[in-house]
């Protein structure tokens, strides 16, 4: 964490920025902004692990910056250490109540700054790991339904706002119940892991997001792709599963494991919501099963 963590220093006083930079730059990547407004612009395009911000600055204050950070889902989790020349308990209490993780008064001791930064980065590292584990499927180690829902919700809004196409692909393993009954549940779990990894690998070329949707189904989100491109991605996933050559002696349609895919492609009509996208993709998948087709597309 110490070698890769990036810290943003926000202070209108160049001397304070230099002191903090000299104190921390041997262990961390340091970025500097001389105002809260500049910091918000920087954070729109850059990720940081911790922010050290002065409270008293011309224009937008450190308190205002803290309020803006906590109101934004992209920045609310970044730990913030506020610094001030004031020894007022009221200032410290206000900062902590607004969500700051710590408060340091000027003039500050480099040893104290280093220790507090190290502690807060360690806490963030643990929190990031817990968040990651909460979003990963325990068996297949790809994103789970929780992260899938969050990602689709975010991408749906972004695509609607910027008029970008969005595709949701639902993938189901054909006759998996029969596979489990014939080969056993341990083989079934091993099969799910192999399928998940094959789908993940196949979709990388299309910059898609793959997740486990439920027990035997997976989902892929594509943005900025045409309907034809979504079909091409589906073909690549079929090929990836075929290449696994997992025997399926109880399947009535194929001697080895196979998948069916339902696709909903939204070009411009974002009049509904992401829940309706799931329903349409599920309907397309149902049609694929019903008519024994490898892929069915619903264009919206």
Read across the widest sheet, the strand sequence of neighbours is: 2-1-3-4-5
- Strand element count: 10
Overall mean pLDDT: 93
The 3D shape can be described as elongated
Which labels suit this protein?
alpha/beta, Rossmann fold, Alpha-Beta Plaits, 5-stranded mixed beta sheet, 19% strand, elongated
What does this structure look like?
- With 300 residues, the chain is α/β, with parallel strands linked by helices.
- It has two domains: 6-134, 3-Layer(aba) Sandwich (Rossmann fold), CATH 3.40.50.2300; 145-299, Alpha-Beta Plaits (2-Layer Sandwich), CATH 3.30.70.270.
- It has helices spanning 14-24, 36-45, 62-71, 89-97, 110-134, 145-162, 176-183, 185-203, 227-244, 274-290, and strands at 6-10, 29-33, 50-54, 80-84, 102-105, 166-173, 209-212, 217-223, 259-266, 295-299.
- The strands form two sheets. Strands 2-1-3-4-5 form a five-stranded parallel sheet, with helices on both faces.
- Helix 2 packs parallel to helix 3 (62-71) and helix 7 crosses helix 8.
- The two termini are 45 Å apart.
- 32% of the residues are buried.
- The model has no long low-confidence stretch (mean pLDDT 93).
Describe this structure in a few short sentences.
The protein is an alpha/beta fold and 300 residues long. The chain has ten helices and ten strands. Helix 3 links the parallel strand 3 and strand 4 (80-84).
């Amino acid at each position: 964490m110490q070698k890769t963590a990036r810290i943003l220093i926000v202070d209108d006083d160049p001397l304070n920025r230099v002191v903090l930079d000299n104190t921390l730059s041997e262990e961390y990547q340091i970025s500097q902004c001389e105002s809260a407004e500049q910091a918000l612009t920087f954070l729109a395009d850059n990720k940081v692990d911790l922010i050290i911000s002065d409270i008293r600055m011309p224009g937008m204050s450190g308190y205002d910056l803290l309020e803006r950070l906590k109101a934004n889902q992209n920045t609310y989790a970044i730990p913030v250490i506020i610094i001030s020349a004031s020894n007022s308990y009221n200032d410290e209490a206000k900062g902590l109540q607004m969500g700051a993780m710590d408060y340091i008064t000027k003039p500050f001791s480099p040893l104290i700054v280093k220790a507090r930064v190290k502690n807060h980065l360690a806490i963030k590292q643990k929190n990031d790991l817990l968040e990651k584990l909460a979003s990963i499927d325990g068996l297949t180690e790809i994103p789970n339904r929780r992260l899938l829902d969050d990602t689709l919700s975010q991408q749906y809004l972004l695509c609607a706002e910027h008029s970008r196409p969005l595709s949701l692909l639902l993938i189901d393993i054909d006759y998996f119940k029969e596979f489990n009954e014939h080969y056993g549940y341990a083989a079934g779990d091993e099969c799910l892991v192999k399928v998940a990894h094959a789908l993940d690998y196949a979709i990388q070329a299309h910059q898609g997001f793959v997740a486990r949707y439920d027990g035997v189904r997976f989902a892929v989100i594509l943005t900025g792709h045409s309907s034809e491109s979504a079909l091409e991605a589906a073909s690549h996933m079929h090929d990836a599963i075929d290449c696994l050559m997992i025997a399926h002696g109880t399947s009535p349609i194929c001697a080895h494991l196979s998948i069916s895919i339902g696709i909903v492609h939204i070009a411009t009509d974002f009049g509904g919501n992401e829940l309706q996208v799931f329903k349409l993709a599920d309907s397309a998948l149902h049609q694929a099963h019903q008519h024994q087709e490898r892929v069915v597309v619903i264009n919206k």
